[in-house]
Automatic annotation (TrEMBL):
GO MF: symporter activity
PROSITE patterns noted in UniProt: NA_NEUROTRAN_SYMP_1, NA_NEUROTRAN_SYMP_3
Family as reported in the entry's similarity comment: Belongs to the sodium:neurotransmitter symporter (SNF) (TC 2.A.22) family.
Transmembrane segments: 12-31, 43-63, 94-121, 155-175, 187-206, 226-251, 263-288, 308-331, 352-371, 391-413, 434-450
Annotated Gene Ontology cellular component terms: membrane
KW Membrane (keyword) present: yes
Protein name (record): Transporter
Membrane topology: Multi-pass membrane protein
Keywords attached to this entry: Membrane, Symport, Transmembrane, Transmembrane helix, Transport
Primary localisation category: membrane
Species of origin: Canicola haemoglobinophilus
Record InterPro entries: Na/ntran_symport, SNS_sf, YocR/YhdH-like
Length: 451
């Protein structure tokens, strides 16, 4: 039997949508989106994010869906085969390899973030981080310094546990492992999210936070900010990672790609918006600055929880929500690399998983952890190892892979892309011409702005 014949398919559209939702609802929605909203004018950023999802998010989801389902193979060979009666030049597969390199880069630091979150959960449960009484920024900053930045051994242990959780699920396969786990994890995530939202919007003074979050200050809306938000949509939807290409390669040919892409974009946007409701009302209630940047979740929010009734419990629920979101995302990014390694070598699935997770841990997770302490003097392009992995993968590799994917659909696949989309003629032609002529320009502007 060929590798293609052995491939599984999602058991239902719901299973696929939940898995894609899990892939796109990670730290991008629960950590990065809230602090970017806080830094960029609240409602102004939210409005532009919703517009960006329409302008580039859903059209690009369809691009990757078409590429992935067409060949029903890994994210490298998906750029091969034949189109319109001609063999596709092998050079296009470089896009797939660039996506693999980017996936390695994001997992190099992403898993460490998972280790940070587990550290907070462990510290809350053990009492090492006591939020039963109000704490100050000095307390939370000191905790972060002592337990995150200057305790590499503890972080590596928690990161290894997070990697192990991924391994246990991945070895069971795409359907029995990823799909089944997501069916349980996503409802649990929604429950935790709902609990946190209800807790926050019922706090005294919550309305001020809601106003900041939902009412746009139009003076904050600029062309530069919109371009910046467009770039963040790539991270939010895992575009250019090879994730959607890989996941859609397991999609049945009868599935309606337009419906699944629209649902994916809408669900991702709603979850990101919901994340704001579990954060900003409480910030304004307890007079904590919303524009504290990347430290918002790890240093500012614990202050908020310490002022709440049963703050330690709600903090544990919140960080558990973060780790679930991170897990559903890391599983699918790992799968990009595992599928490619398994289908392009003679390795079986367990061997491919062990090699992928092991190599990323040693070559990525360990350096990212040590870059804050033991190797703090090591600088790459003026950045720490952790930040360099983030910058190169998120600002260069993924954007260029997405650009190449749009060009591949518009100028190589052509009519075959239209056929694969399987939508009405009018919608298909509008989408195709938009992807062919407009999307590449938008992505180039994003790329130049991100450098």
């Amino acid at each position: 039997m060929t590798t293609k014949e052995k491939r599984q398919s999602w058991s239902s559209r719901l299973a696929y949508v939940l898995t894609v939702a899990g892939a796109t609802i990670g730290f991008g929605a629960t950590w990065r989106f809230p602090y970017l909203v806080g830094e960029n004018g609240g409602g102004a950023y939210v409005l532009l994010f919703c517009l960006a999802m329409i302008v580039i998010g859903i059209p690009m989801i369809l691009v990757e869906n078409v590429i992935g389902r067409r060949m029903q193979i890994n994210s490298v060979d998906a750029f091969g085969g034949s189109a319109n009666g001609k063999k596709i030049n092998r050079t296009w597969k470089l896009l797939g390899y660039m996506g693999l390199l980017g996936s390695f880069g994001i997992l190099a630091y992403y898993m460490v973030l998972g280790g940070w979150v587990l550290t907070y959960i462990g510290s809350l449960i053990s009492g090492n981080l006591d939020l039963s009484n109000p704490v100050t920024i000095d307390t939370t900053s000191q905790f972060f310094t002592d337990n995150i930045q200057n305790n590499p051994t503890l972080i590596l242990i928690y990161t290894a546990l997070f990697v192990l959780a991924n391994y246990i699920i991945l070895v069971k396969g795409v359907v029995n492992g990823i799909e089944r786990s997501v069916k349980y994890l996503m409802p649990l995530l929604f429950i935790f999210l709902l609990v946190m939202i209800v807790r926050n919007i019922t706090l005294p003074g919550a309305m001020e936070g809601i106003k900041f979050y939902l009412i746009p200050d139009f003076s904050k809306i600029t062309g530069k900010l919109f371009v910046f938000v467009l770039g963040q949509v790539f991270f939010a939807l895992s575009l250019g990672f090879g994730v959607l290409i890989t996941l859609s390669s397991y999609l049945d040919k009868k599935e309606n790609l337009v419906k699944t892409a629209t649902i994916t974009g809408v669900v991702n946007t709603l979850i990101a918006l919901a994340a704001g409701f579990m954060i900003f009302p409480s910030l304004f209630t307890f007079n904590v600055s919303p524009n504290s940047g990347p430290t918002l979740v790890f240093q500012s929010l614990p202050i908020v929880f310490s002022h709440m009734w049963a703050g330690g419990v709600f903090a544990t629920i919140f960080f558990s929500l973060l780790v679930i979101a991170a897990l559903t995302t890391s599983l699918t990014i790992y799968e990009v690399l595992i599928t490619a390694l398994q289908e392009k070598t003679k390795l079986n699935r367990k061997q491919a998983i062990a090699l992928t997770l092991g190599a990323i841990f040693i070559l990525g997770n360990v350096p990212s952890t040590l870059g804050d302490n033991v190797w703090r003097n090591v600088s790459i392009m003026g950045m720490s190892i952790f930040d360099a992995f983030d910058y190169v993968s998120g600002n260069i590799l993924f954007i260029l892979t997405a650009l190449g994917s749009a060009i591949f659909v518009g100028f190589v696949l052509k009519d075959e892309a239209k056929k694969e989309l399987g939508a009405g003629e009018k919608f298909t032609n509008i989408w195709f011409n938009y992807v062919k002529y407009i999307i590449p320009i938008i992505i180039l502007v994003i790329f130049i702005n991100s450098l």
